[in-house]
Amino acid sequence: MQLLTVLFIGLVFHCIYLFSIFDIYFRTPIVHGMTPHRVEADAPAKRLVLIVGKSFYDLISGDGLRADKLFESNFRAPYLHSLIANNATYGISHTRVPTESRPGHVAIIAGFYEDVSSVTKGWKMNPVEFDSVFNQSRHTWSFGSPDILPMFKHGARDTSKIETFMYDSHFEDFSKDAIELDKFSFDMFDELLKNATNDHILHERLHSDQIVFFLHLLGLDTNGHTYGPHSESYYKNIKYVDKKIKELESKLNEFYNHDRKTAYIFTADHGMSDLGSHGDGDPDNTRTPIIAWGAGINFPVKALEDKILEDYSKTWPASKFKRNDINQADVAPLMQASLIGIPFPVNSVGEIPFAYLNSSEKFKSLSLLTNAIGIFLQFETKKKSKNQTDFFFKDFKPLISLDSNKFQKHVETLIEFGKYNESNKISLDIIEKSLEGLKYFQTYDWILLRTIVSFGYVSWMIYSTLSTLELYGNPNLNGKGENKTLKIVIGLFLSCVLLLILWLKTSPIQYYIYASFPIFFYFKIIQSRIQLRFNLIKGIVVPLSVYCGGLIFLVGSYYDRFYLAFGCFILSFWSFLKKSSMLLSVSWFITLNLLAVSFFRPVVKIENVFDLNFGVLCILLTSALGLIYIKRVINHYNPFCIIQIIVFILNSYIVSDTIQNLSSKAGLPLLNQYLIFSLSLLFWNRRSIENYYDRTLIIFLAFATPYHTLTISYETQFYSLYSIALFCWYLIEKEQIEYLQNEKPKASSTPYRALKIEDLRISWFFIFFINVAFFGTGNIASLSSFQLNAVYRLTTVFNPFIMGTLVSFKILIPFFLISSILSLISKKLSLPPFCLFLIVISSVDVMTLIFFFMVRDSGSWLEIGTSISQFIISGLFIVFLFILYVLSLLLMPLNDLKFKLE
Fold first, then answer.
1. Less Cβ around it within 10 Å: N or C end of the chain?
2. Superfamily of the domain at 31-359
3. DSSP code of 211?
């Protein structure tokens, strides 16, 4: 019962504390209640409207378009290059990580980098919860993907003014020509203009001012994922988009009688790496093109020879003209305030890029002033909210005496007197300080919360360790009762002080929940029967320090896979220190060193048929060695082993045939799809296996089939080496235990022994191999930019949930092996079930606490996302281990098998 209590408390504690980083580091900075502000002057495009009475804005977004692929050749996009040379201002729009569609479009359309609290959200049919260009426009027509358009429609104040024209999600098939996706958007746009000739209401709306057309072009992203950004399909798509943009502009000119009141921006939400992936911070992913032309936009300016930018762009034909780089969030204020004259988004943090504007200095200064007021109002709203709820309120000193009305009047006076540089300097200073102030109030409660959470993890580790010793430790550690009145009084006093502070700060309910855990653990600790005497503590200090040092060493593997390579190299000599056979020691040495080499192979992979075929050979060779070993040890093997090998060979052939079909653009054969699904799920009934040798081999082969199905490069080779290393580990431990039992025969009649300090090594090995499994073929950053080729053998229709589930399952497969091997070792050591498991969960939070303090809320999104992933992976380790242990009992049911480990 005590075991179940500890496990339940641990699961609840870790699940709740997982959300602590979102309350500390990633509380949404979005504030509400501000009044939208617009430039109190005629915008460049609106002025033309005043004459003709109409003005609209056209936004075209290319999904997954790299800046260099567009700018480096005139032949790929001749019309866009002619615009750069004659009518447009161009540059690079720098995105933030994750370089994905949702945050990219939010930055472009809302002027705001998706708040990091949204990492807990999906992107499909999940509305944005802040202001945007579409909200402020008079009417918006959007065309394209069902993954993007609904977000802005369902998140708008008035959904009726945002119209969406979308294709069905099944239209996003990676085995088909992705140009059809872009063709849909252009065709629907053409149809809209045609319908206006017969629809009076539509005609009137199309001729009103402050309207937006949004074309989302997904073809480039899809072709890039499928064939790569260097492929003919990708270049063909660029040419197609270039041609259709020329046609679109011509049709609009004709529709509006060449009134020259249309502004255009061509940009992308993210780029794409050479391997056809995106998501991380690779410069090819974060650099996207931006080309603006039309009403209110500057004409090109010749670049001076000594002003041409870095090597990245100096060979571009477009480098003859000045390149004006911006941040992605700067696009929204450019579109709204400076081109079509609508209010700034109330949550926008972008700055107006003056270089793109063809307007007076006065208008630019007024725009920047409005920009500064909008950001300052966000700060002021945040400040008022905190002041109303915090008894110990401390203001942000740099803006403590600033009055927004006086500031606005002062800057407006400077503008009236033509002191534009001085007014711009003040506005930029207010923008900078307001952003710092928002950051200040965002981190206002950090010290208190981080202290509570730190004590929570430390007290949990002490409580779980003492509980483990009570359950499985030496009975001599249990002491007599003692007077604990003073400890109880101190605990009650500190608890009351902590709860009073939270009450005075008007803290939300979850803060009280976080605080309740260290209080609870404190009282459980003082009730413990375990008494650790000084001489005992002295004896475990060194091994415990080494163990904690090993955990800290593993922290490094989350940042650099070299740590695990070094670990494999060092551990390869361990077998020679044990009483194991020379053949086994050499096998372990060779396998561990080959595993170390795996960490020097690339984490982002391309489909490689040779590696795939060599991986099949490795699986078959490993299986043959397994059969030979089983035959030598028990003189026979289960026929299901042979059947599982045949299943693997058949599946490998079908996978190879599927790859050829997809490469030739013949699509995913339906029969192949069904056969691969069926064979990958085939696993023989556990009750038919009579010994753990056969069962281990069958588990290896059963998971090798789906693993190979989801492999595009050397992963299957790694899987073979990893499996051999795990079985060698078990055999070394087995021989060591048998040697010690021969030296010192077992005296106790009890089925289980007590924990020993040496068991820490087993626990560390387990954590080490868990990390090897996770980082053996990738790292945390590469998980956000995985190759979709891996799932094409099972589905080619874009579905984030299914594709994400398949990739996650592939990552988890090696963990099933390590959990099964740990069950065998635990049984061989005569340790009770969950014993080693409890040691691990009692200590692994050493890593969790380190990752907690290393979580970042600033820097690139790659750094932010990686730090979150590290904490979550470590924080959920107990949940993960519990699931693994239960699976190990299903995969390796030791009590049901007809064999003895002794």
1. N
2. Alkaline Phosphatase, subunit A (3.40.720.10)
3. E
